Structure formats: C-alpha cells, structure tokens
Predict the structure.
Amino acid sequence: MCGIVGVVGSKNATDILIQGLQKLEYRGYDSAGIFVSDERKNQSIIKAVGRISSLQEKIGIEVNGSIGIGHTRWATHGKPTENNAHPHASESNRILLVHNGVVENYKEIKTEYLNGHHFIGETDTEVCAHLIGKFIEVDHLTPKDAFVKALGIIEGSYAFAMVDREDPTVIYVAKNKSPLLVGLGEGYNMVGSDAMAMIRETKQFLEIHDKEVVIVKKDSVEILDEAGIQQERDAFTAELDLSDIGKGTYPYYMLKEIDEQPAVMRRIMQNYFKDGKYLVADEIKKAVIEADRIYIVAAGTSYHAGYASKTFFEELTDTPVELCIASEFGYNLPLLSKKPLFIYISQSGETADSRQVLVKTKELGYPALTVTNVPGSTLSREADFTMALHAGPEIAVASTKAYTAQIAVMSILAKAVGEEIGNEKAKSFNLIQELSLVATSMVATLAEKEWIESKVAEYLKDTRNAFYIGRGQDYFVSMEAALKLKEISYIQCEGFAAGELKHGTIALIEEGTPVLAIISNKSIASHTRGNIMEVSSRGANVLKVVSADCQEEGDDILVGNVHSYLTSLAMVIPTQLIAYYATLQRGLDVDKPRNLAKSVTVE
Ligand code: AGP
C-alpha cells in the first residue's frame, strides 16, 4: 500500500515521477504528491487529494528539475487530506520524506524526541521526517547519519525515500518489510516500489534488502548494510514489457485481465511442460513428498485459490491440505503436524499478513514454497522455493487472472508430485489436455459477454445485496465470486455452501433477493437445485450459472465442461464478468474500488 518513486540526474524529473506514480496508483489512490528540485535549488512541492490525475492538474510547466520524489497514498494514519499527503517535511522544511509502511512507535518517538514540534498532519511519516530533521539541526549530524540514526529508532515496516533540500543531488533510501527497488540508468538513477514504475526508463534493477541504507546519486548507487558496511550487488534485468502494463484498447484493466486468462493457461503449460515432462524443480517435489501435511497460507482471492486447489492436491499427492487465513494464523495457530510444508499463495508476493506468517514458520524451521506472480518479491525471496504464475502483471485491484493462474500452477505441482510417487489418479490425469480444455471453455464463456451483461442488468440492477451459492468446488467458487462482486460493485454479497443457507441465512431471503447459483457437478446438482427451490419459493430471483453437462431448461449462463478437479477455473469466468458489468452498470471505477489497494503491505 502506498507507492514511492524517485529519480536523480534526469532532465525531466516531474514527467518521470508522474509516469511512475500512474503505474503505482494500484497501490493506493487517496492522495498524491511530489517534490522536485533542480541543481540551483528551484524547488516545488505539489500535493493533491485523490488520484494522480488531480495532482497532474495542479502541476504547471515550471515545475521541473533534476531530482524528485513522489508518492501515492493509501491512508493508514489520518484522513486523505492534503496535510496528510506525502512528501512530508521536517520542522525546518529542510528534509523531505516519502514513506510506504506503518511506523509502529511513532507516538513514542513524538513524546521522547519531538517535544514542542508542530505537526501539520497526523501521519507517522511526518514524525519520522521531524526526527531526521532534528538530528541534523540540533545534533548536527550529516543527513546520511541522521537518516541512519532515525532508522535505528523507527520500528515497523517502511520503504523511505528522502531528499535534503540543501543538497538536491542525493536520494537516501531504506526499506524494512515494504518493497523498494533501485532502477539503474545512464547518467540517472531511480527508486520505486516496483519495476513497473520505472520500466519506461530502465530494465536494469538492484534489489534492496531489509534494513539496508542506499545512497542514490545520478552516477552511483552505494548500498550499506545495517552495520554500515558497503555491499556489492549484481543488477538484474526485469522481463517486463511496457505493453504488458498498458490497457491497450480496453476500457479497464480488469476486462483485459479477464480476457487474458485463456492465454495465461497456455503460457503456464508452456512454462511447466516440455517434452512430455512437468517442469517442477526436484527440490520442490521433494519438499511436498517429505511433508506429512500442507498448510496453505494466503489472503483474499489467493486464499480462495487455495481452497479451489485443496481437493486435487490431496487426491493427487496423498497429503492432507489445510487452509489458513494469513491474518489469523498468528492467533489461531493450528496444531501443526510433525513435518509441515507451508505454501504461500500470493499474487503480489508482498502481502504483509502472509509475510508475518512466513517469518514465523521460518523461525520454527519449517520449509516454505511461495506461489506468486512476482518472482523476486518479498515472499518469494524469503521462502525456500518459488513457483511463478506467469500471468503477467495484474493491475486491476480485483484479482482475476492471478486466481486462475494460482489454481493452474497448484495443479501442475500436484500432478508432478503425484506422478513421482506413483499415485494412480495422478498417472491417469492428463493435465495438459485438461488445461487446454479449460482454456477452450474460458474462450467460449468470454465470447458470451453481451449475454452475461444482459443477465446482470436483469438480476442485479439496483440491488443492495445478493448471495452466491454452490456445493463442493462450486462453493469455493461462490466465495471468490462474492468477494469479486462486493469489492468492486459494493453490492453486499456472501458466498454460501448451498446446503448451509437453511441453517440461518435463508432468513435474509425476501422478494427479489438475487441468488446466484453455481452448478458444475452432476452428482450433487440435484441437491443445489433443491436449495434453489427453497430460496425461489421465498421470493429469491435466482440466476443459474451451470456447466454444460448439468444443464436444464431455464438455466441462465452455460459454461463448457472441464475435468472435475478444474471446474473452478471455468466456473469463475462468468462470475468475474458479472462483477465487472454490475460495477460498470453502477457507473463505478472498476479498476480502483474505494478503500482498497492492490498490494496490501500493512498487517
Ligand atoms: C481480491 O480481488 C484482492 N485483490 C485481494 O483479496 C487479494 O487477493 C489479497 O489482498 C491477497 O493479495 P496477494 O494475492 O497479493 O497476496
């Protein structure tokens, strides 16, 4: 949450910052701000509440320079106001700071070090700017030493970029638990929360490790560890294309990403299957085989992808799978088995809730695999093993292609392990053929957009609440479908096990309540249809999303058949489109729903 970008040594600092912030807007869009300076110290700070576009409107052509830092905010401490927007200044205005993360001891810092200081906003970041400024002005430390001293006091998560107005040739940066990268250019260098923010300028990047301090100048980058010892680090090239991060001709990223799913299925097959073999590293297979239980730790959509993977994973690997909500794990620790393997499923690889579990399970000495769309992300670096999703950047806040990619990659892992241990079901399961069928089914559903849009208008117009119901795999899809609908359309929606409604929640069904039923399993279809009758007779308006082999007259949306292990991959597609069109029909911003951010880097 929150995005940071900085550049030093460029002629067009403002343009570079704005372009970078636009790419980071998915991380938060409550307010935005920049500081720019030229070498003669002509300096400007511009801030605006809301989107980057509001900031852009306030920037005149005279606002430019050779160095700058910028920030897009997802509010944690204090409302989304201009006073709380970054960059924040020290008391004398000399130090400017942008920050992503949460400083846990900012109140203590205020009381202990900053008595008598006047703050214009309520953020933890402003407190840090004052602390650094105080060490320069009162204790006469250099900006670097003041920065380092402050970092020794600050507790919590942070990615900081700092500029000293007196010397606008250096950006001081540091990180702990929040993401930050250095981008390397010819005659200029950059910093940013992710590679996308810098990819227009460079493809060469340097990782920053937690607690390091990095001094970025136009022609040098100095990395110091916690003890102040200089570190050597090789640059890496990001395999990102500018076209991957653009919307192309699509009105919204979400629609583009929904449409990309058949291609993502094929890309996963290409990356994980060659010459008749599944390409999963031996040590990853070994880790699964040696485990007596798999714990999948994840949040939100990734958690739902874990559920969708549970059945085939257990059946193909003969290993029980337990699902854990990352944010609950610390307090509701399950009784762990003797040889657990932890699998962290995370699109971004940066989710703080999952990361705190990873830190804990590493301390306990348990092996960890991260399944992520961002190799090189924190969860990927800190786990023992990583499997990549190959889904391409997912920019819409609502996750779509990452969900299906996560299930597909988990199926590859399960199949590879199953073959290795000689599991009969795994041997007879032609996964590549089945994933091709999934891609075909997805293509057919995506061709029915207009029909689905008309069904959304018919069933969800003006409603304030709705239910998704299903059994088995369809229940797992219902949970994900409900999350998608509520997070972008703001329709209050719950995903329910169809048989569970009658145990209480059916009391909420009244005349016209939309109930969206998912049916993809012939053997339990009649039970779900029974539940449909129960809610229909109480006035519910039931929209049925049904696989071809379960079809009956009067069903609304048909989905091409796929293998029973993989029905979530096919059945979720219409539900993503339902969420998309319900949001569009309400005139809301599909890609940037209120109160949310793509990468949830606070606990
Ligand atoms: C869903 O659309 C959300 N984007 C959200 O639930 C997300 O899946 C969750 O925050 C976990 O993120 P991660 O996959 O990046 O760890």
Observations:
- The domain at 3-243 is CATH 3.60.20.10 (Glutamine Phosphoribosylpyrophosphate, subunit 1, domain 1).
- The longest strand covers residues 95-103.
